[in-house]
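## retry 2 of 3
previous attempt timed out at serialization; input unchanged, resubmitting
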Amino acid sequence: MTQELAENDAPRGIFITFEGGEGAGKTTHIRFLSEKLRERGREVVRLREPGGTAVGEELRAVVLDPKNDNLSDEAELLIYEAARAQIVAEVIRPALERGAVVLCDRFADSTIAYQVHGRGLDAAFVEQANAFACQGVSPDRTILLTTGGSARTGLSRATHRGADRLERAGEEFHTRVNEGFLDIARAHADRVRVVQSAARKSRTSELVFRELADLFPWMADVVDDPSYFASLDVRRPRPQGARGGSGNRGGGNGNNRGSGGTRNGADGGAKGKSGNRGNPGAKAGRSGGGRARQEKPSQGSSGSAPRGKGQGR
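## retry succeeded, writing output
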């Protein structure tokens, strides 16, 4: 039995979300955090938005389909909220009730940043829609990863394999989104912790752990040990047979209960992007797609990970 479980035989569920604009590197740090939590004996459920359920994946496919380029911003918002309501009811709430740690690549904050600040939808309405979809579930902690530079910096990182619909929304759009995230952080400083991506992934992950140490006390014992995070700076080979495919900002196509099998697809160990985005050709500076790499393990396994492209918020 691990030290953490020995101290608390029935650990409470903890909900952590990762937010940020393009190229912030959320997936790398979600993956590393989940690995270390599992080593401590915690059940970890890794998710992306939208998606993570059969219904959510079908709704996501509607948003991702390029032929739906006339989808209105208002309709798109409601699709994302429907996917969120489903993942909260089907996956997130049950996981928290059984004591799991839920790590989600994007959640309601992305809707405010992209739909309100980026697209210009009514803030009061979007907040009400978020509240309805979330059903009283809210994150214990949100890590807002930033590039520390302009929107162009993030876009440059995100588009080195080519730009998608969201990334073509333009620098002005993404500047508004990034500013929206910072506004959220200022308004909810008790929950949202801003972490600027460092030159080394190991340093960024150390900063993430520091912002979570009050939730997981054992982290205070490792944050000053550089060797603990060193593996992040080792370049991982690209999986054999990797190919493009529909994706969205978030790791994987579903959730993983602990270190065992997956449900509704991948465990989320992919690098990607998720969220309330899309709608190419909409109002100026208010449309886009998303770029993603997602894992596609076999059922019941958190196996290999082909990476692909796709569209998100």
